[in-house]
Amino acid sequence: MSNLVIVDYEVGNISSLTNALLKLKIDHIVTDKIKKIEAANIIILPGVGSFDKAMSMIKKKNILRSLEKCKNQNKKIIGICVGMQILATLGYENKITKGLNFIEGNVKKINKSKNYRLPIMNWYEVKSNKKDDLKINNKIFYFLHSYSFNCKNKADLFYYCNSHNTKIPAVINKGNVYGIQFHPEKSGKNGLSLLQKIITGS
Amino acid sequence: MDKLRIIPNLEIKEDFVVKGFQYEGVRKIDNPKIIAEKLYKSGADEIIFIDTVASLYKRNNLFDVIDYASKNIFIPVTVGGGIKNLKDIYKLLRAGADKVCINTHGIKNKQLIKDASREFGSQCIVLFVQSKFIEQEYFCLTDNSRENSGLKVIDWIKEAEQLGVGEILLSSVDRDGSNQGYDRKLIQKACSIVKVPLIPHGGCGSLNDILELIKENKSLNAFSSSSFIYELNYDVKKIKNYLRKKKINIRYE
């Protein structure tokens, strides 16, 4: 029985992520079942759709409490893209929506600036904000988003990238909760190595 | 400045990547899976697959290619051709596409663009524009460039942005397959009004064509090509080596 679950909110592209894990030979299941989520040791919230849509699906499927339980049991939780954003206290996409509040902060639209377009759809080098524990300092990853996570506590910002004349949070971390703004499953070899590292710790 | 994305654009007919001149008289190039894998390994930043006969046969035939790509190619994949409703988009995304690009049915039913952007997020809805210069104006063609919609390119880009598209693939039918260089007038015009990322396509015939395009349009962070990349034997690295020497910011690893 696998102890890694990918939570299925029924929208968007999950197969890229499952195929990346297959490539890495990491066992996993894709599920929206409460029992399976609660039995897992590692929970991945994948990057699909919008903040409000993701939260409404989580509520509709009655898995909000399961996720909170996993967090309180100090299980590893990894959010990717929108899955990272919903770790926040509040989201401002389409309408103001309460998030999981696993890492304090809010998710707002990135300010427009000259010669930069939104959505962000590009490859950026990430920079370490503290220790380079994930060994990805200066490595390049693929970002695809218009909203960004503003951490309330600066200590929760793990890596960032520079774009739109600002620092865009790339990886956030608090305890055993990790949020990845970019798409490791779409970032070539660098992305695959990071998934391996963050899931297995090696 | 942002990095410049190099995005090969593979037009597919039945089981082959094909290339024509002004989207007509196509010749077979090779198997899409083989080409895609070579492009991934040589440093392509994204890949676009377009089923060129999907509108005609009323279905997208690329599921096999998408499935292969999502298992072997870990960069973003955009898929287009014959997408007519939200269910089509859902199926393509579920199969492993990261973005979808829409032309014909977005023009025939503008609500599709609006609903799709809302449902799946702007970031995965790409507007595909096939531009043709007719009587001193750029018009949008549909049905793989067989029909003139009567919509002006600039008007449609503005409207589609309002409807919620997250990116625009702007192809010049006049230059397609010609190797005469990008339609610089068209691209400059589009760049001056567009607010989302724009991917110019059509006509690239040399490394210098790319450089000129980038120097003229500071806001560009991507370009697309098909025949020129086939001529280079799918070796995207040759383009990257050149651009790097010219101090253009690209992904290089």
Give the secondary structure arrangement, pairings included.
The complex is a heterodimer of chains A (202) and B (253).
Chain A: E1 4-7, H1 15-23, E2 29-31, H2 34-39, E3 42-45, H3 51-60, H4 64-72, E4 76-80, H5 82-85, E5 90-91, E6 97-98, E7 105-109, E8 120-125, E9 127-128, E10 140-145, E11 147-151, E12 157-163, E13 166-174, E14 177-180, H6 188-200
Parallel strand pairs in A: 1-2, 1-3, 3-4, 4-14, 5-7
Antiparallel strand pairs in A: 5-6, 7-11, 8-10, 9-12, 12-13, 13-14
Chain B: E1 5-13, E2 16-21, E3 24-30, H1 32-41, E4 47-51, H2 54-57, H3 63-72, E5 77-80, H4 86-95, E6 99-102, H5 104-108, H6 110-120, E7 125-134, E8 137-142, E9 147-152, H7 153-163, E10 167-172, H8 184-193, E11 198-201, H9 207-216, E12 222-225, H10 227-231, H11 236-245
Parallel strand pairs in B: 1-4, 1-12, 4-5, 5-6, 6-7, 7-10, 10-11
Antiparallel strand pairs in B: 1-2, 2-3, 7-8, 8-9
Helix pairs in contact in B: 1-3
What's the number of structural domains of chain A?
Answer: 1
Give the helix level of chain B as a range of percent.
Answer: 25-40%
> From the alpha-carbon coordinates, what is the Rg of chain B to the nearest angstrom?
16 Å
Proportion of helical residues of chain A: 25-40%
Quickly name the level 1 CATH class of chain A.
Alpha Beta
Most residues in contact: chain pair? A-B, 40 and 38 residues
What is the name of the CATH class of chain B?
Alpha Beta
